[in-house]
Amino acid sequence: MNQKIRKIERVSITDQVVKQLQALIMSGEFKIGDKLPTENDFCAQFGVGRSTVREALRVLAAMGMIQIQAGKGAYVTKDKDNSFDAIKYWFAEKHAELSELIEVRMGIEPLAVRLAIQRASPESIKQIQEIHQAFKLAAIRKDHIELATLDESFHNAIIQASGNSLLIKIGKLIADSMMEFRARSFAVIENINHATIPHEKIVEAILKKDERAGTLAMIKHLEISKHDMEQVAHEIEKT
Q1: Which residues, at least 6 apart from 202, have a Cβ–Cβ distance to it below 8 Å?
Q2: Would you call 10 helix, strand, or coil by DSSP?
Q3: Which residue of 8, 50, 112, 116 has the lowest C-beta tally within 10 Å?
C-alpha cells in the first residue's frame, strides 16, 4: 500500500476512518473488485478498535462504495462518491421502503423525546447538546459523511436518554436500516439545512423540559424528511 495510513485522532474516530478509507479507494489504492484488508488489519493500521472499523465499513457500504459479503470480507464496488443523479434515482427506487421506516420512526421518536425530557440525566442532555454542536459545524463544512454519523448519534442519544430498554432496541434496528438513507440524503445540500433547524428546536425543547414542544419538533422533523424524499421521487416520475 503506497498511500500512508495515519494514526487516528480520538475525535470523530469513525468519520476519520471512513474518510481515510474513502480516500484510499478514490485514489486507486484499492480498486473496484479488490478485497479490503481484514478488520484486524485495519485495527492495527489505524490504531482503533474493531467496533470503529466495523462502523466505518458499514458507512462505506451504505454509500455504495463497498459490499460486505458474510464470511468473505469487504469488496470495493465503486471508486467515486455519489453523483446527484445517482442519489435521486436511489431515493426513487427505495421510496416505499424509506416511507415505512419513517412511519415507524414517527411512532417511536416523538415518544422517545418526550420520555427523554422526563428522564434524561444532565450527562445525557450534555451529550445531546455536544452532538448537535458537532452537527452544526459539519453542516457548515457540508461534510455529508460526518453529518450522517452525527445524525444517527443525535437520534440515538435521544432514544438512549428515554431510559426505555425496548425503545432502545427498536431504535438500534431502525438506525441500522437508516444509515444508507442518511449517507445519501446529506449529499443533497438542501437536506442539510432541513435537518439542522429541526435539531435546534428539539434541543431547545429538551433544555426547557417542554414535552409538547419536543414532541411537535420531532414530528415536524420527520415530516420534513418524508416530504424531501417524496419530492425526489416525484421529480423522477416526471422525467
Answers
A1: 113, 158, 214, 217, 218, 221
A2: coil
A3: 50
Average pLDDT of 47-52? 90
Contacts of the segment 169-175: beta carbons below 8 A, 24+ positions apart = 170/104, 170/108, 171/108, 171/112, 174/101, 174/104, 174/105, 174/108
- Cα(73)–Cα(37) distance, rounded to whole angstroms? 8
Backbone angles phi, psi at 72, to 5 degrees: -115, -35
CATH number, residue 229: 1.20.120.530
Give the total number of structural domains in the chain: 2
112 CB neighbour count, 10 Å cutoff? 26
Q: Are the CB atoms for 222 and 201 separated by under 8 Å?
A: no
- Paired with 34 in beta bridges are none
Give how far Cα 231 sits from Cα of 23, 27, 85, 92, 225, Å: 32, 34, 14, 9, 10
Q: Is there a single domain that holds both residue 69 and residue 149?
A: no
The whole model's pTM is what?
A: 0.67
Residue 59 and residue 103 in one domain: no
For 64-94, how does the pLDDT look when each residue is reduced to its tens digit (9 = 90+)?
A: 788 999 889 999 988 765 555 555 555 556 6
Looking at residue 129, what is its pLDDT?
Answer: 96
Pairing between β-strand 73-76 and β-strand 66-69 as defined by DSSP bridges: antiparallel
- Do residues 144 and 187 touch, judged by C-beta distance below 8 A? yes
Residue 236, pLDDT score: 46
